[in-house]
Amino acid sequence: MVDRLANSEANTRRISIVENCFGAAGQPLTIPGRVLIGEGVLTKLCRKKPKARQFFLFNDILVYGNIVIQKKKYNKQHIIPLENVTIDSIQDEGDLRNGWLIKTPTKSFAVYAATATEKSEWMNHINKCVSDLLSKSGKTPSNEHAAVWVPDSEATVCMRCQKAKFTPVNRRHHCRKCGFVVCGPCSEKRFLLPSQSSKPVRICDFCYDLLSTGEMTACQSTRSDSYSRSPKSSLNDVSDDDDDEDSSD
């Protein structure tokens, strides 16, 4: 079906509409063989709070952006190559239900659908696209993924020293390796993580010690149920603020 749609006028028109919705600031999306599989609004678990984002699934990439005007205008376009993606389901908890993790070497995050059916459809389509891509390229699935950041609201004290309380003066920081919310003194060191940045990035002392001794995988925590534990925020909150981390954080 994808091959049949690849060169159809209807597919070309749909992709052109998506390009226009992102405006001049968005990257061109029309290339030979690319097919728009589906689209919809998902709730993305951001650093500060859950936010609604518009997602577009193509046969080779996943695109999302901030909603400015529903169905008409989006900004802050993000493009994720699907061959680097793996997904894992998340257990329901509180207002955050029907969720799964989108994991890549450069960035990982949690998203939530409106219904269980919608979640199932998204996950099935993403898995099918990834499987088809890897089958055609002969590549193996990526086994390296960036940590999913723990939301700010989940930590009132440093998750490493368990002592430093966060205040407007004592800011929260995130370890780029484990995703923990940590205080400044516990994350003063930098380490080069090539999949995430060309420059050394902030990591906590715990991960630094393990990385320095070559134990690269030991500090990649597996908080499989922690991603869904955040305050009961409004899942309909639509913000034009950037949902990405501050580079100095």
Automatic annotation (TrEMBL):
Record domain FYVE-type: where: 152-212
Localisation: Early endosome membrane; Endoplasmic reticulum
GO MF term list: phosphatidylinositol binding; zinc ion binding
Biased composition (Low complexity): 222-237
Positions of the UniProt region annotated as Disordered: 222-249
Biological processes per GO annotation: endosome organization; endosome to lysosome transport; protein transport
One GO CC annotation: early endosome membrane
Topology of the protein relative to the lipid bilayer: Peripheral membrane protein
Domain of life, per lineage: Eukaryota
Regions of compositional bias (Acidic residues) in chain numbering: 238-249
Domain PH: 35-131
UniProt KW keywords: Endoplasmic reticulum, Endosome, Membrane, Metal-binding, Protein transport, Transport, Zinc, Zinc-finger
InterPro entries hit by this protein: PH-like_dom_sf, PH_domain, PH_domain-containing_F, PH_Phafin, PLEKHF2_FYVE, Znf_FYVE, Znf_FYVE-rel, Znf_FYVE_PHD
Function (record text): May play a role in early endosome fusion upstream of RAB5, hence regulating receptor trafficking and fluid-phase transport. Enhances cellular sensitivity to TNF-induced apoptosis.
Protein name listed in UniProt: Pleckstrin homology domain-containing family F member 2
Organism of provenance: Mesembrinibis cayennensis
Gene: Plekhf2
